[in-house]
Amino acid sequence: MEQMMHQRTEQGRVLSADQIRTLIVLERVGGSVSLVAVMLIFVAYALVKRVRNVQNTFIVFASVSNVGASIACIISMDGLFRGKMSPLCQAQSFMFEMFMQSDPWWSLAMAVNVYLVFYMRFDPNCFKRWWWLYCMICYGGPFTIAMTLLFIRDESRGGPVYGEAELWCWVDREWDFIRIYTYYMLIWMCILGSIICYVLVGYCVFRSRNRLRSLSTTRSRDDREPQTYASHSESTNGRREGFYGTVITEVQVTHSNALTAPFPMQAKQARRPEGTHVSFEEPPDQVQPMPGQYYSSVTSTPASRTPRPGASKRIAAAVAAAANKFVIDDPIKRAYLRTSLLFALSVLVTWIPSSLNRIHSWLAGGSPFEYHVSTAAVLPLQGLWNAVIFFITSWTSLSNWYRGAHEERWEEVHDNPHNSNSSKRVEDGTFGRVARHDDLAADSDLEACSGTAGSGVELRDHQAKGSMDS
After folding, report:
1. CA-CA distances (angstroms) from residue 115 to 23, 112, 174, 188, 193?
2. Residues of the chain with pLDDT > 90: what percent?
3. Is the pTM of this model over 0.70?
4. Please, what are the domains in the chain?
5. In terms of CB atoms within 10 Å, which of 18, 97, 424, 432 comes out highest?
């Protein structure tokens, strides 16, 4: 094994036997876990009809590619040990080139669908008739690239494109530029395209909610203005009909501290001048003298100021207000967007370590062991992340299905009269109500029959007595 690793040393850097075993364990454990998780997705999608929506169908299609990627990860370094010209190494290289980059393609397809649903007002269910097009692009694109590289050979570069990589069989290091242009560049184009679509969707949601709020505010203001104008007109007309004078009242308000200015011991009469000040627009028939100006002093304690909330509370309130502007009321669109965002986030997290490893290797001529560990630990887990997203977003539907199937099974067992364990359940009280109901029904039938028979006997006795009397 160490001799083989000396052959695949990059820029004089050699991996030890312990490091090789660590990488092999990480690759195979991650691939096996992803393979099991993907199989659980297929089983749940086949059994539960409620989870067969558009977003979960995208995850299922991406999981088909995860099967090939997981198998390639489980092969690990066996292809390297058999040589780059071996069929196992060539097959592993083909699977990595085709299936490993399929997730970003499906992520971009989901992002485009979300953009069409929110920005172009498409119905999410209308995409079902376009599945063939999505499969042709997201499967056909990587397949075309992988198949083309399989037949390219150049003896000056050591032979075929597929050969020895750092962790497994993939594009040979002599064709390093092929890795960039046919793999990482396409992957990050898909990731950036997904980010752009989600930014446009967020802008669309933000603008729509602002329009809705401004429209509701305008309508409420228009509804209040006629009522205010009507009440103002009625009060004005009422004042005109009641009297024709204008009374000027002046009130002086003085604020003082309650401790320094105590209340007077005795109440004093307010000072009121004798003169009146009344003006008329037209001479009335009779004018009653009325007081014109009032002078009064009001003593009050200044209201205590409410304490300002802390900085953390203000920040939390601002964040909540900003997040409220992006709330989506439609539950179908909200679930569709949530699943797509989680899928895009998983793709981003998966490809960051591998991309950093590739950039460092490209610039420095090689990567340390820690970079290889991060790539071997994260990259094979694409199927696991897809399963986590699938079951988190579909947990309610799955739990309802399980509960309903469990209840139907118990009802079938309870309603089966030929069950061999029915007597035991009756003794345990499981079928107590059913047994009591049957007993009551039998008792009522018996009473009905006995009542009918008794009435017949009484009728015959009565007829016999009548014949004897006659």
Report:
1. 40, 5, 40, 19, 11
2. 34
3. no
4. 27-218+330-400 (1.20.1070.10)
5. 97
